[in-house]
Structure to design on (821 residues):
């Protein structure tokens, strides 16, 4: 039973970067903007958090720096795509490539640096008690942060007026503008939020999960986060489930490699990516669900006039 | 402001010298307009006369280049719709500004200030909708509603803000005759309570029935002001178009053999918000015009996709053209068998916007000697495009003009001309005069009748009931994916057709019962 608790803890730990990045991107896409720069923003967040942690020895300050760095990079996207009305797909792709290069360049001197990262909770009497105690209190603090983000996004979208306006803007920016909502300002806010979330997702990898810095350490998780949002039909709950599915498969793949299963390791490494997409694609086949949840204006530029 | 005693009361809204230019066109040229408290004031004009631009200026969506706006005697600057609403303006848009995936209550909340959109909102929606006879269920999602119901949402949304001036932009273009009567009752009740109403339309009969004053616009200018109740339809039309209303000549039909036959066609909707077709049967004979009336969204899009070949059918003989089963054929194969099609959306289905008129001719006229052995005969294509432009008086810079550079009405004339130029055995036209000015509309209607007289079968799908009654020999009504039997136009009238159109009436009434 102890190994079961361990399995759950490791699964959540592996899925958490996706939870951050995909929930952020979900909010962005719900406002009608498609930012394909998630991978770049995650890496930028990761390197910024690692450097700040290495300099200040405060990993939480590092997480904050990751959020700021992700948001700063997304601001570049927002200016180009929302104000200058460039193509969102092209801008997002460029942002990803830029983020990959920028993080590798800035992080050159930090590749073998060792830092003191954020450790899993350890509350005497609780975290080490029985299996329930471990399941409830044995995670990394950032895992709790990601769950809090999930609750907050869910609540914001369904229960708040600002969330309602956000959904309305994503469905029809023209109508929202005609009844007096500030479409572009709102989209800016959503894009910055998404950038900060992606940055925190990267920071989690660099200062909590590994903790270390290496070039391209997100290993395509930004792209998986993008796929996750679409296949989860823009529902936070499905995003969470998809992220943990990915986490579990990542784990299984490591186990299989360790156990020496007679499958080429390259194929095994593909497994979490392929399986996550296949499973999500199968459960999201329903056209009505997609039509009701997909932001109708996704990726289309809007100019108020 | 101290006016002589016999002058009208102080206007609630006064515009002076409003001017707005779009690239290449002067949409509003020094427009003056006064709207009095409690009056129903019409703004009358053809498509492109500048009505919509003017309304957007009043509502703060568009900023004028010059001119002043006075509200209750005070000069105001309307920078945004939110500001306009604070002053007490409300607007019901021609193309609804509703969010389909949201509920009625959410749609209403979006248009209100945060303070007003509290938890008591559904109850307030119910009370306002009952007071004005506009039955609505606040929890329903908009995509499940008919067009008439959607308009109620727009109106109730405005009424909740207790407007002092309500603007309606072409509100009846999508309603059945009965729904129009109900709307007018609501508007009269509102005006009686002191709300001013600005009513935008090009439908002369409606304006004569409803409005106390009318301002007429032509090409961006005010060309007259009158009391429409004292005018005739003809005199209003003269003010609006600067000439007499053209009337097509119409001889009795000499219908021949069946040319287009639809036999109990069933079709599932592609789109989850679409309408499934249920056992549709229809015969159009050579030498007659058959019309299909109905409120949009009742299966027209699906039927047209099935007829044109955009969606191929499993059953070959569900559709036959001149005796040949074509259900399984694609659009090009059906065209080769004598079908021509004027789709509803001109830019997208009717024409490729970026391509020249010559190229657009080639796309649907491949079998008329414009292509030989797979090679384009450029001269012949160009010549055919030029002929269509000349004979239809299309305003374009020439056969090489891009389709998107033409105005809506001119492009529509070109497309209708192109299709008729193929001498089809069967012509299907969807909303052939939608958004087209009166002169061009009359020309298109006349051409359809002439084509009939030349022995072709013509099927017209339209929401404009007047148009259908004018040009059709027989008329069927589509409602909720079912088609009524076609009746001779002489044996029926607008009221009966209206009732059939509201075959959706069943769901209307269920909604009413639910609310009350």
């Amino acid at each position: 039973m102890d190994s079961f608790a361990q399995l759950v803890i490791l699964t959540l730990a592996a899925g958490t970067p996706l939870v951050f990045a995909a929930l952020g991107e979900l909010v962005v896409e719900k406002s009608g903007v498609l930012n394909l720069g998630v991978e770049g923003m995650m890496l930028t967040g990761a390197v910024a958090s690692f450097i700040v942690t290495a300099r200040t020895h405060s990993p939480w300050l590092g997480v904050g720096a990751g959020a700021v760095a992700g948001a700063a990079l997304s601001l570049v996207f927002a200016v180009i795509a929302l104000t200058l009305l460039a193509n969102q797909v092209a801008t997002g792709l460029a942002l990803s490539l830029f983020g990959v290069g920028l993080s590798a360049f800035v992080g050159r001197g930090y590749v073998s640096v060792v830092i003191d990262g954020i450790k899993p909770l350890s509350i005497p009497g609780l975290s080490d008690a029985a299996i329930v105690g471990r399941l409830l209190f044995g995670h990394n603090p950032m895992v709790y942060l990601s769950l809090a983000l999930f609750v907050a996004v869910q609540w914001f979208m369904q229960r708040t007026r600002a969330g309602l306006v956000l959904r309305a803007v994503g469905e029809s920016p023209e109508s929202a503008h005609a009844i007096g909502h500030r479409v572009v300002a709102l989209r800016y806010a959503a894009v910055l939020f998404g950038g900060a979330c992606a940055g925190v997702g990267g920071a989690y990898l660099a200062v909590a999960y590994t903790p270390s810095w290496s070039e391209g350490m997100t290993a395509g998780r930004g792209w998986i986060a993008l796929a996750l949002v679409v296949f989860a039909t823009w529902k936070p709950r499905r995003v969470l489930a998809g992220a943990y599915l990915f986490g579990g498969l990542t784990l299984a793949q490591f186990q299989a490699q360790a156990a020496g299963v007679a499958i080429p390791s390259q194929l095994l490494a593909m497994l979490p990516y392929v399986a996550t997409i296949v499973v999500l694609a199968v459960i999201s086949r329903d056209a009505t669900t997609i039509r009701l949840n997909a932001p109708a204006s996704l990726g289309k530029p809007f100019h108020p006039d | 402001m101290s006016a002589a005693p016999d002058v009208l009361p102080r206007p609630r809204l006064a515009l002076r010298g409003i001017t707005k230019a779009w690239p290449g066109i002067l949409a509003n040229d020094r427009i003056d307009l006064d709207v009095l408290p409690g009056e129903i004031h019409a703004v009358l004009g053809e498509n492109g006369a500048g009505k919509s631009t003017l309304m957007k200026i009043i509502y703060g969506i568009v900023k004028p280049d010059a001119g002043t706006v006075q509200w209750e005697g005070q000069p105001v600057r309307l920078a945004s719709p939110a500001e306009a609403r604070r002053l007490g303006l409300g607007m019901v848009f021609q193309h609804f500004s509703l969010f389909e995936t949201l509920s009625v209550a959410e749609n209403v909340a979006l248009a209100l200030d945060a303070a007003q959109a509290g938890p008591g909102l559904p109850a307030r929606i119910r009370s306002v909708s009952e007071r004005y006879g506009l039955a609505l269920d606040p929890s329903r999602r908009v995509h499940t509603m008919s067009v008439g119901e959607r308009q109620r949402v727009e109106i109730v949304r405005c009424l909740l803000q207790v407007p002092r001036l309500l603007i309606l932009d072409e509100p009846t273009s999508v309603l059945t005759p009965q729904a129009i009567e109900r709307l007018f009752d609501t508007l009269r009740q509102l005006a009686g309570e002191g709300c001013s109403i600005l009513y935008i339309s090009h439908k002369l009969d409606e304006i004569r029935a409803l409005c106390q004053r009318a301002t007429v616009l032509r090409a961006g200018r005010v060309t007259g002001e009158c009391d429409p109740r004292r005018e005739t339809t003809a005199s209003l039309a003269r003010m609006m178009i600067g000439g007499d209303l053209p009337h097509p000549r119409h001889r009795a039909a000499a219908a021949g053999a069946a040319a287009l036959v639809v036999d109990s066609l069933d079709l599932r909707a592609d789109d989850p918000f679409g309408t499934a077709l249920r056992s549709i049967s229809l015969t159009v004979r050579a030498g007659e015009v058959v019309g299909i009336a109905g409120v949009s969204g009742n299966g027209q899009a699906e039927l047209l996709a099935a007829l044109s070949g955009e969606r191929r059918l499993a059953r070959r003989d569900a559709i036959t053209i001149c005796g040949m089963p074509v259900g399984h054929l694609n659009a090009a194969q059906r065209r080769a068998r004598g079908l021509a099609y004027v789709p509803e959306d001109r830019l997208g289905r009717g024409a490729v916007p970026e391509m020249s008129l010559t190229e657009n001719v080639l796309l649907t006229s491949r079998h008329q000697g414009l292509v030989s052995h797979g090679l384009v005969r450029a001269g012949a294509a160009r010549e055919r495009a030029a002929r269509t432009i000349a004979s239809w008086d299309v305003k374009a810079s020439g056969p090489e003009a891009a389709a998107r550079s033409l105005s809506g009405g001119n492009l529509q004339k070109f497309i209708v001309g192109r299709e008729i130029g193929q001498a089809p055995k069967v012509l299907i036209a969807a909303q052939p005069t939608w958004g087209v000015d009166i002169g061009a509309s009359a020309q298109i209607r006349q051409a359809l009748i002439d084509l009939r007289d030349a022995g072709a079968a013509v099927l017209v799908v339209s929401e404009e009931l007047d148009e259908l009654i004018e040009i059709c020999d027989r008329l069927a009504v589509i409602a909720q994916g079912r088609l009524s039997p076609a009746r001779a136009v002489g044996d029926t009238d607008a009221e009966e057709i209206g009732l059939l159109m509201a075959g959706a009436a069943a769901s209307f009434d269920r909604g009413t019962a639910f609310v009350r």
Remarks:
- Chain A touches chain B at residues 161, 164-165, 167-168, 171-172, 174-181, 287-288, 291-293, 296, 305 (CB under 8 Å).
- The longest helix of chain A spans residues 2-30.
- The mean pLDDT of chain A is 91.
- The domain at 2-293 of chain A is CATH 1.10.3470 (ABC transporter involved in vitamin B12 uptake, BtuC).
